[in-house]
């Protein structure tokens, strides 16, 4: 599935990577603690580049590769497409469970010290994770 997704939708994965770069570029350090600005900035970048509207096709194609059918046509919004602090997340319920596709472009850094905020760091590239929950 992973290979097929990358082969069929490599340009979309590359565009997700570029959008994440654009979000992180203005940061004055390697990290940010502003989750809302990160998520809103990534969503805006993905929308302006037309990536968000193409992600339901990625989801549908991946479900098709599993040999299962979608219960409904996915849309570029919850519950199918969600922009998180890690990156875009695609979800579909299929017969064996919930298929989840994550495009991780940011790491979430949790500090063990009390009172320290969670920070977010730009990953080097896109980590693609596909799983069944």
TrEMBL record:
Residues 1-131 form the DUF7988 domain. This is DUF7988 domain-containing protein. It comes from Natronobacterium lacisalsi AJ5.
């Amino acid at each position: 599935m992973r290979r097929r997704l990358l082969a069929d939708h490599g340009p979309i994965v590359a565009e997700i990577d570029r959008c994440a770069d654009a979000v992180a570029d203005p940061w004055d350090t390697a990290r940010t603690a502003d989750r809302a600005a990160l998520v809103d900035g990534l969503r805006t970048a993905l929308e302006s580049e037309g990536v968000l509207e193409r992600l339901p096709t990625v989801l549908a194609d991946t479900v098709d590769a599993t040999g299962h059918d979608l219960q409904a046509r996915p849309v570029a919004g919850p519950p199918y497409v969600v922009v998180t602090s890690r990156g875009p997340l695609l979800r579909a319920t299929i017969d064996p469970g919930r298929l989840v596709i994550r495009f991780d472009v940011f790491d979430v850094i949790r500090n063990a010290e009390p009172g320290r905020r969670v920070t977010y760091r730009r990953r080097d590239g896109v980590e693609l994770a596909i799983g069944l929950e």
